[in-house]
Write a structure and sequence with these properties.
353 residues, alpha/beta, Leucine-rich repeat, LRR (right-handed beta-alpha superhelix), twelve-stranded mixed beta sheet, two-stranded parallel ribbon, 20 strands, elongated, binds 2-acetamido-2-deoxy-beta-D-glucopyranose, transmembrane helix, signal
């Protein structure tokens, strides 16, 4: 009896999974190679992520749906899943531990949603993740805890969010990261320590933020950096030391479309940066001044030689004045001496009278 019951159970379970799989593959998703690849892009009718995906699944496309939330353990038992795409799916919230058990996942794409916050448990279980895309969301801050389990991460794309706050050490766990894309966000300053531990980082893209202040040690730890993009920010002035601290074999730096205050000092800083062999200022020719008003929208290169003229003139004037004074002093001293000797002599003659 027990044996029959067992058989019956096995039979029931088996038919249940196959029939669910059949529904998913026949009705909602396009399946390939059995059910290793499933494409459910724009085809899920409900507001919930299906919970009956087969455990042999490796690639899953769930984009262009309407889920609003990714709940805790949304994908139980998908031990083999490598690629998960859930872009443009109206997601507002990702619950902590949503991706727990996706230990083989290498690529996660969540672009084009409405995610505001990455919770402390966002990265829980994502120990193999190499590529994370969170562009075109509503993120406002990045915290260490939300990214702490992403130890294998190589590329992260946060473009087009509203990030204004990056916690010091937010990227501390990302020791394998090679590309950090943060363009079109709301970052206003780069503080010492925010990029510490990113020893393998090659590409740092900060285009289109509101960066006006850069701490001079902030790039010091980036020993593999090959590309630094600071285009379209509000930088007025830079320090030579900040860039001298980039100690790599070669780094390309892009800095056009900032609010450069063109003065002799800026011209000298750029001159010095350009003389460092390992640094390449690719768009130097295209840098334009924002201030002072008389130089507005002129290219830095074209006013380059004039910027220090005022200073040179001042130096010349000072030198000239000093020289005159010195000469005058010498002449006076000489005259005094002569006068004194003359007097002396005349005194002597007076005596001889
Ligand atoms: C899934 O199908 C859509 C068209 O229905 C296609 O645009 C998309 O590229 C497919 N996804 C993958 C991962 O092949
Ligand atoms: C998505 O679902 C929400 C309810 O969960 C609904 O209000 C909204 O109209 C849906 N949007 C689309 C584009 O289907
Ligand atoms: C980042 O993601 C956006 C899509 O939202 C894409 O257009 C862009 O090319 C990506 N950037 C990189 C470097 O992959
Ligand atoms: C960017 O930050 C400024 C001030 O910190 C704020 O006024 C502005 O609304 C922010 N922009 C976005 C898109 O969040
Ligand atoms: C400089 O500007 C010119 C004309 O706008 C453009 O063709 C060129 O690609 C720019 N060079 C760089 C390095 O941005």
């Amino acid at each position: 009896l027990l044996y029959t019951l067992g058989l019956l159970l096995v039979h029931v379970c088996f038919t249940r999974t196959t029939s669910l799989l059949q529904t998913l593959c026949e009705v909602q998703c396009e399946c390939k190679e059995g059910s290793k690849f499933m494409n459910c892009s724009g085809t899920i009718t409900g507001a919930q992520i299906p919970s009956n995906f087969p455990s042999e699944l490796e690639h899953l496309d769930l984009s262009n749906n309407n889920f609003s939330i990714i709940p805790y353990r949304a994908f139980p038992s998908l031990w083999k899943l490598q690629v998960l795409l859930i872009s443009n799916s109206h997601i507002k919230q990702v619950e902590d531990g949503a991706f727990t058990s996706l230990e083989k996942l290498q690529k996660l794409d969540l672009h084009g949603n409405y995610i505001k916050v990455l919770g402390n448990g966002f990265s829980f279980g994502l120990i193999s993740l190499k590529e994370l895309t969170l562009s075109h969301n509503r993120l406002q801050a990045l915290y260490y805890r939300s990214l702490q389990h992403l130890e294998s991460l190589q590329k992260v794309n946060f473009s087009n969010n509203e990030i204004s706050c990056v916690e010091t050490g937010a990227f501390r766990s990302l020791t394998h990261l090679m590309q950090l894309h943060l363009p079109r966000n709301n970052i206003s300053e780069l503080k010492n320590g925010i990029f510490s531990m990113l020893k393998r980082l090659e590409i740092l893209n900060l285009e289109g933020n509101r960066i006006g202040h850069i701490d001079s040690e902030v790039f010091t730890t980036l020993s593999s950096l090959t590309m630094l993009n600071l285009v379209h920010n509000v930088i007025k002035h830079i320090k030579f030391k900040t860039f001298l601290n980039i100690k790599t074999h070669g780094t390309q730096i892009f800095m056009v479309h900032n609010q450069w205050y063109c003065d002799c000092d800026l011209q000298r800083v750029f001159g010095k940066i350009r003389s460092v062999r390992r640094l390449t200022l690719d768009d130097y020719e295209n840098l334009t001044c924002k201030e002072p008003h008389v130089l507005s929208s002129l290219s830095l290169k074209s006013v380059d030689t004039q910027l220090c003229i005022a200073e040179t003139v001042t130096v010349l004037v000072i030198t000239f004045t000093v020289s005159i004074t010195v000469v005058a002093a010498i002449v006076m001293a000489e005259r005094n001496r002569k006068k004194r000797t003359g007097k002396h002599w005349s005194e002597e003659t007076e005596v001889s009278y």
